[in-house]
Specification:
β1, α3 and β2 form a beta-alpha-beta unit. α3 packs parallel to α13 and α4 crosses α5. The longest helix is centred in the middle third of the chain and has 21 residues. The N terminus is likely disordered. This protein has about 350 residues and is of the alpha/beta class. It has 14 helices and twelve strands. It starts with 11 loop residues before the first helix and ends with a helix. It has an eight-stranded parallel beta barrel with strand order 1-2-3-6-7-8-9-12, surrounded by seven helices. It is globular, with a radius of gyration of 19 Å. About 45% of the residues lie in helices and about 15% in strands. The chain has one domain: NADP-dependent oxidoreductase domain (TIM Barrel, Alpha-Beta Barrel), CATH 3.20.20.
């Protein structure tokens, strides 16, 4: 195996994390402390919904990769394009040391015409679900090559769940228990990743993992603890993670952009009842001169179980705007009517 160059050696955060993981309870406390309040979700760097030039991706990463930054990516995002762009930027800027998470559960196979998964002009690969031990290791090695690293800080099992796999769910979960989780634990023990976890949109998938005895270091949950979706609270997932000391990362706080002025809700065009809910929330915020996206971004962090909120951006200006929204002063008097309105219509 080729030895990685010095700029691809484990980050200081990963080294510290590996030491902390000698004691599991302490690991969660210490790793949580390393996470910034806001991380960057790198699906847009994979041309999600619209193409992005390499130069524009570099502009985004230039702003994102500030001290203490956290970037989450996956092989699925642009079929390797997101990871490749991050790796190219970090190779060109070896002084940048962001916390990096990526995912396993899909391998990328070369193909002439990539399938359409919402990524415009993706890299010429076909994503294939593979939760076998061999598949987990193969996918991870592919990711390390694209990222130009010898390790990552957090490795997440991607998109397990009944909504994703339908009738194959039981078989997928059984294989995850039999092969994927042990493979990830082994990668952690080998020092290839500082922590392991689950990255999903489905609360029930996380609860099933916990019921089967897989208690991850972290859960990245997309779109299920937002101003428009209370699934993570209603099923008890947030409280269970808190009780177990599992780090919770609340991704997609804008529910695919709807709460930040877009027209997608959970990856599809927003239906009229959801658009009406957004109008109601926006009206409440306007009464306090608070932008709705500021409330949406800050809302998940009001729960002490949430360590970090993770949002994507397509430009440097959007990254800066999110920083401003996160710092926007929101009077306590606004949160109660927002909570009351939310309880009336969230899923």
């Amino acid at each position: 195996m080729t030895v990685a160059p010095p700029d691809a050696w484990p980050t200081a955060a990963a080294v510290r994390l590996a030491l902390w993981l000698e004691t599991e309870a302490m690991a969660s406390i210490e790793w949580r402390a390393q996470l910034p309040r806001r991380g960057f979700g790198a699906a847009p760097l994979g041309n999600l919904y619209a193409p992005l030039r390499d130069a524009d991706a570099d502009d985004v990463l230039e702003v994102v990769c500030s001290p203490g930054a956290y970037i989450d990516t996956a092989p699925y995002y642009g079929h390797g394009l997101s990871e490749r762009r991050i790796g190219d930027f970090l190779r060109a800027h070896p002084d940048r040391r962001p916390i990096i998470s990526t995912k396993v559960g899909r391998r990328l196979e070369p193909c002439g015409r990539p399938p359409d998964h919402g990524f415009v002009d993706p890299a010429p690969f076909r994503p294939v679900f593979d939760y076998s031990e061999r598949g987990i290791r193969a996918a991870f090695l592919q990711s390390l090559a694209r990222l130009g690293r010898s390790s990552v800080d957090l490795l997440l099992l991607h998109d397990i769940g009944r909504q994703t796999h339908g009738d194959d769910h039981a078989a997928v979960m059984a294989q995850a228990e039999r092969e994927a989780w042990p493979a990830m634990r082994a990668l952690k023990a080998e020092g290839s990743t500082g922590a392991i976890g689950v990255g999903v949109n489905e609360c029930e998938a996380v609860l099933e993992c916990l019921d089967r005895g897989f208690v991850p270091d972290a859960v990245l949950l997309a779109g299920r603890h937002t101003l428009l979706d209370a699934a993570a609270e209603r099923c008890g997932l947030i409280e269970r993670c808190r009780a177990l000391g599992v780090v919770l990362i609340a991704a997609a706080p804008f529910n695919s952009g709807l709460l930040a002025g877009g027209d997608h809700f959970n990856y599809v065009a927003a239906p009229e009842p959801v658009l009406e809910a957004r109008r109601r929330l926006a009206g409440l915020c306007a009464g306090f001169e608070v932008p709705l996206p500021a409330a949406a971004l800050q809302f998940p962090l009001r729960n002490p179980a949430v360590a970090c909120v993770l949002a994507g951006a397509r430009s440097a200006a959007e990254v800066r705007q999110q920083a401003a929204w996160l710092a926007w002063p929101i009077p306590e008097e606004l949160w109660r009517p927002l909570e009351d309105a939310r309880s009336a219509f969230v899923a």
